[in-house]
Design brief:
This protein is of the alpha/beta class. The chain has a single domain, classed as NAD(P)-binding Rossmann-like Domain (Rossmann fold, 3-Layer(aba) Sandwich), CATH 3.40.50. It contains 11 helices and 13 strands. Strands 3-2-1-4-5-6-11 form a 7-stranded parallel β-sheet, with helices on both faces. The chain has a two-stranded parallel ribbon with strand order 7-10. It has a two-stranded parallel ribbon with strand order 8-13. The longest helix has 22 residues. It starts with 7 loop residues before the first strand and ends in a 6-residue tail after the last helix. The chain binds nicotinamide-adenine-dinucleotide (NAD). Nicotinamide-adenine-dinucleotide (NAD) binds next to helix 1, helix 4 and strand 5.
Length: 328
Amino acid sequence: MLSLKGHRVLITGGLGFIGSNLAHKCLQLGAQVTIFDCLDPRSGGNLFNIHDIRGSVELVHQDIQDFSSVCQHICDKTIIFNCAASTSHPFSMREPWIDLDVNSRGVVNLLEAIRRFNRQCCFIHLGTSTQLGKLQTSIADEKHPEFPTDIYSANKCVSEKYVLIYAKSYGINTSVIRLSNVFGPRASIHSADFTFNNYFVGLAFQNKDITVYGQGEQIRNVIYVDDAVAAIIMAAQNAKANGETFFAVGDEHFSVAQIAEATVKHIGSGRVKYIEWPKSRKAIEVGNAFISNKKIKEYLEWKPMDTLESGLLKTKAFYEKSLQEYLR
Ligand SMILES: NC(=O)c1ccc[n+]([C@@H]2O[C@H](COP(=O)([O-])OP(=O)(O)OC[C@H]3O[C@@H](n4cnc5c(N)ncnc54)[C@H](O)[C@@H]3O)[C@@H](O)[C@H]2O)c1
């Protein structure tokens, strides 16, 4: 990754899992970092995520739904990474209006602020592989049609389109990185509402049962957070990313059962238990997800550096020192 010296970076959602890891990396690369986050109690934000860099970043406790505040903080930045989102699939089904307000309207606020006050900046937005819904081809790439099965993923689809419209219509330098099952340090590991593999890590650390629905045969793609962060930064540093959408997903594909078993093995405790599918989960389940990372490899020369095993070992080392901060 190239240096970010001289860059003024805004990270919305910078107290969350991916945003805080991104903040650490941007600082390491020499950027001046501002975190813009409302610490939404329904998301994975955690002040502890930045305890070690608190003195080196500016923290703005604000909401992306507040347009004037967004305008105020966007205008002098060179790169804006949008990691703010209402991130729970089940919550989006229970409270669709909240999801709509944050994940769609909030993104329009950011784009409109950029259009009015800072067209020179680079804007990187995060999408999700679940935008695709049930795959129609055995392996999916960025051209695969989108049929999301939950409200969160639907709003992620539409917000991605807003980003691409602003790129095309106003020449704003943007790209979208779609992620899938990111795991690692600084994640929300105490709630089944967020990424399942981080929840598995939390259960294993507490020596609890990891409950897998059915036989856990559905295939998933997992990616260690440092690799996701590298993809996000590389998109901001390469003009080829402009106006493009990329899947930044790992090379490896595993069944949910394999991920659960690997978590128990590498964290060193916990048990895998197989239970019947709850109705609400079955309804939004997307089946096997084989996703290709060919495009991002070709365009940005990015490649994942960690495996499930090496990522889990690094994850273990992190939470061993700070577990209590992530279980409340
Ligand atoms: N974690 C994954 O596996 C994964 C997979 C696919 C896509 N993504 C996307 O990556 C991005 C970051 O996800 P994450 O896992 O870090 O989530 P997270 O829940 O850990 O972090 C989200 C952050 O956004 C903040 N936030 C929520 N609403 C806000 C608002 N209205 N204004 C300002 N801040 C707000 C929260 O306080 C939190 O700190 C999201 O766009 C998510 O959809 C994540």
